[in-house]
Amino acid sequence: MIGGAGYHSGRIPARSERAAMTERRDPINPTDDAARALARDLVAGARFAALGVLDPETGAPVVSRVALALDEGGCPVTLISDLAAHARALAADPRAGLLVGEPGAKGDPLTHPRMSIAVLAETVDRGGPDHARLRGLWLKRHPKAKLYVDFGDFRFVRLRPTGAALNGGFGRAYRLTPEDLAARDGRIGPP
Amino acid sequence: MIGGAGYHSGRIPARSERAAMTERRDPINPTDDAARALARDLVAGARFAALGVLDPETGAPVVSRVALALDEGGCPVTLISDLAAHARALAADPRAGLLVGEPGAKGDPLTHPRMSIAVLAETVDRGGPDHARLRGLWLKRHPKAKLYVDFGDFRFVRLRPTGAALNGGFGRAYRLTPEDLAARDGRIGPP
Questions:
Q1: Which of B30, B53, B22, B12 is nearest to B177 (CA)?
Q2: In this complex, do B85 and A61 lie within 8 Å of one another by their Cβ atoms?
Q3: Is residue B98 a contact partner of residue B70, using CB atoms and an 8 Å limit?
Q4: For the segment A37-82, what is each residue's pLDDT rounded down to a tens digit?
Q5: B63 — contact with chain A (CB < 8 Å)?
Q6: Rounded Cα–Cα distance for residues A27 and A3 (Å)
Q7: In chain A, which residues have their Cβ closer than 8 Å to the Cβ of B103?
Q8: Which residues of chain A neighbour B84 with C-beta distances below 8 Å?
Q9: Which of A8, A60, A84 lies nearest to residue B95, judging by beta carbons?
Q10: A82-104, pLDDT tens digit by residue?
Q11: ipTM confidence score
Q12: Is the pTM of this model over 0.80?
């Protein structure tokens, strides 16, 4: 299902645009290079995101805020404590949703570009070389995390995209594949 | 499950706090008036939120950004198009998750207070007096919405809280009931 209307925006919809949307009913544009570039910028620029997981007791969606970085391949990574509710949720069901593209304090957050990414969570073993590499990348982006990154209950979790819905503002809705999100100098998505 | 660790924060955890958390394992504080007041402020101040819904095809969580206002009783309300993916999702399963407490452009979003609210969505009939009242409240808070509020595919949706997890920063995690969220001059939650 993933995909927004691209419609619920502050910009004035021209009469012709409105007519086109009413006729089409599915306001999704064909994915082009500009959409791919915007999508990559949103992921690369996201120091934080909203993470949606499934409550393991009820199956209902629960949204919390997480910090974000990219691994060497451009895949989003977060650092979470085993004590956190979303860690327990991801252990029970690795399917999650990310929202990237935080609006600043100014302007209209509904006209600010944002992207809903469907992801699968993969917990990284604390003992392995992968953890050490991610620790280095993480501390470059989140220097204050040095205060807790080495606590035994914190683990890195890769969030592998399986699809995304980009909303760049009115009339600018796109669906993207993991390949669309793949950066020129790396990749996002399955290996 | 709803509840965050209150732990993943930029403030330096004192050694005694860390020891207390390791012993307790469940870093949730007893709910007090200060927590209730902070929770109400977060809801009242939220012009926007991240909304988590269930993909009707796969059951996976999907997070998007929505605009928010409060009804006369203090219950969060959003305005969404039938064309939006989250509208179709809520029609299939009204259980949703809200994240309120958007950080500004400055500072550390993980130390900024935020709250995960479990909600049930109730769509408001466009033809009724309830719609007209909400339309007035909505336009006070979101004046630009006058451009699309009267389009036939837009509807108000009440998001009735069933519980919440407040994260006010390190060591400040609380679980709240709909009654805790009830404002002095109104209410949030079931009637």
A1: B30
A2: no
A3: no
A4: 999 999 999 999 999 999 999 999 999 999 999 999 899 999 999 9
A5: yes
A6: 10
A7: 48, 102
A8: 4-5, 7-8
A9: A60
A10: 988 999 999 999 999 999 997 76
A11: 0.85
A12: yes
